[in-house]
TrEMBL record:
GO molecular function: nucleic acid binding
Name of the protein in question: Integrase catalytic domain-containing protein
Transmembrane segments: none
Domain Integrase catalytic residues, every copy: 123-211
Gene3D superfamilies: 1.10.340.70, Ribonuclease H-like superfamily/Ribonuclease H
Entry-linked PROSITE patterns: INTEGRASE
Pfam family of the protein (one): Integrase_H2C2
PANTHER family assigned to the protein according to its UniProt record, in alphabetical order: ENDONUCLEASE-RELATED
Length: 211
């Protein structure tokens, strides 16, 4: 036994050797202390042939971490694969925490690996509480100029009602778009408050809405 081993490890080793019947989850083989830790994912199906893990004292743990993460055969895997690789043969109480810290502090991983992020999740829906609260718009063109000098088509879609406005315009700029959007919004709000008139009355409603 090395003199560098912590007192707790030395004491456990001595206790298991002296009274093995009191420590069914530990055993000594070839002057090495093992801990019984079967794989829970297969324990109910078949016997885990690798259930006995070598119990690693504190002063040996960094070496185990390096060998199973930084060596060419280890491949600088992430914390999950590195943990699984080590846990297959070794055990100590803070194994998972130590693997996580070691991988996060690995300089090569920090310099060369792309940051791994959790999936963004499902797309959400924006709540629309009333007409014209959210409007999508776009400009199409230029097209061949019409007799009235229009070269573009301005399209608005009210996300609440799915009402679509398609308006020919001469210039594709923010001022024109804003003016037509406000006009379309006002007309639509008036139409939702009144029953749509027929015939000549329709023109009077349009004139009223523009005043």
């Amino acid at each position: 036994m090395s003199s560098l081993m912590p007192i707790t490890f030395i004491k456990l080793f001595a206790d298991v050797r002296r009274e093995p019947q009191k420590f069914p989850w530990h055993k000594i083989v070839g002057n090495r202390l093992y801990h019984y830790r079967p794989d829970a994912s297969i324990e109910d199906l078949i016997e885990d042939q690798d259930a006995w893990k070598l119990l690693v004292p504190k002063h040996k743990r960094r070496e185990i971490l390096r060998e199973n993460h930084e060596e060419p055969t280890a491949g600088h895997f992430g914390r999950h694969k590195t943990y699984e690789r080590i846990a297959l043969r070794y055990y100590w109480p803070s194994l998972h925490r130590d693997v996580t810290r070691y991988v996060k502090a690995c300089q090569i991983c920090q310099q060369c690996k792309v940051q791994q992020l959790l999936p963004a999740g499902l797309m959400g829906r924006r709540p629309f509480t009333k007409p014209w609260s959210v409007v999508a718009g776009d400009v199409m063109g230029p097209f061949p100029r019409t007799a009235r000098g229009n070269e573009y088509i301005l399209v608005f879609v009210d996300e609440f009602t799915r009402w679509v406005e398609v308006i020919p315009i001469r210039k594709a700029n923010a001022q024109t778009s804003r003016k037509i959007l406000l006009q379309s919004k006002k007309i639509t709000e008036l139409q939702s408050q009144k029953s749509r008139p027929k015939g000549a009355d329709n023109a009077s409603l349009l004139i009223e809405s523009q005043q």
